Amino acid sequence: MDRAVQQTDYDAFSCKISAIAKKYLPCQKQVEYCGMEDYAALHMAYGQGLKALSRRAYGKIQKAVNSGLPLMNYGTYLRTLAVDVEIMSFLKQVPKNSKVQIVNLGCGSDLRMIHFMSQYPQLTWVDLDYSESVSVKAKILKSNDCFLKTLGPPQNTDDAEYVSDRYLLRSCNLNIVENLLDILKEFTYPDVQTLVLTECVLCYVKLPQSQRLIHEMMSFYQTGTWVSYDPIGGEKKADKFGSIMQANLREARQLELPTLMVFNSPAKYSQRFEDNSKSTEIRTMWQYYVQEITDVEKNRLKSLQFLDEIEEVEIVLSHYVLLKAIW
Ligand code: SAM
What we know:
The chain is an alpha/beta fold. The chain has a single domain, classed as 3-Layer(aba) Sandwich (Rossmann fold). It is 54% helix and 15% strand. Helix 3 crosses helix 4. The structure holds S-adenosylmethionine (SAM). Its EC number is 2.1.1.233. S-adenosyl-L-methionine binds at residues 79, 106, 173-174, 199. Keywords: Methyltransferase, S-adenosyl-L-methionine, Transferase.
């Protein structure tokens, strides 16, 4: 089961490479608002690093890129853009020279830290995931100057993790909340402004553990912002999206989504953060598409690949949410 969960990182990374290859990413807003330079080059460099370590993983990515369907690319484009914009908005409101920290739980192969750390010298970043994923990522990051120059020289000589003055990539099973807190107590400060990111991660964490994780993190940091992206099962009786998704993943991948049908609507997903927060905002990714993507950008997306059914996009995007909780 843990292995099946770890493998989902290659899905996320291949979706990103596919969206880059088809020119969905980077989009103008990522470049202009989020200052994301060299986006494609950094991801390609990471892909080459992965190829050198695991032909099998790289093969999976190549396959996904070749079959990159527009629906998948729309989803990846929106999720990536929405999270990037939330992080940038958070960083922009931090007073100049004040310390700030970001904790990316279940980081997988995400490379956002490079873009944001290069723009905010006072930012420290913590990436956590299972040990297998962390050691692959640590090896790749240490093998290329384009990552090393931003992350800083690693203090550890082994390849199991990456520790520098401003960056920590360490293994942690998020189901064991005590271990998570031990790491955060060692490397982060409770009184420094903190953003916690869970991008397609809480859906894999068991119910009581995920609730404890949210509660403990929000109690540990005095003030913070939580950005979370996840699928939701759908609450209407006739809505079969979640049950079909769960059955497919179980059969094809032996993968469970323990809370997909529990927090199955935006309101229920949001409730899990509300006890500890001053405010929460949640939108489905369809709402995000309708409200945030300009007509010019929508037309650009349409020109990238032939999209048969926008109704299908609406159904799928209505089953993914982006939440922001502030405490
Ligand atoms: N957040 C990354 C992104 O969006 O690109 C990766 C998303 S991937 C779908 C889910 C990630 O969560 C995987 O890397 C997986 O290993 C990690 N994950 C899920 N449950 C975890 C747990 N209990 N402990 C540590 N990592 C976990």
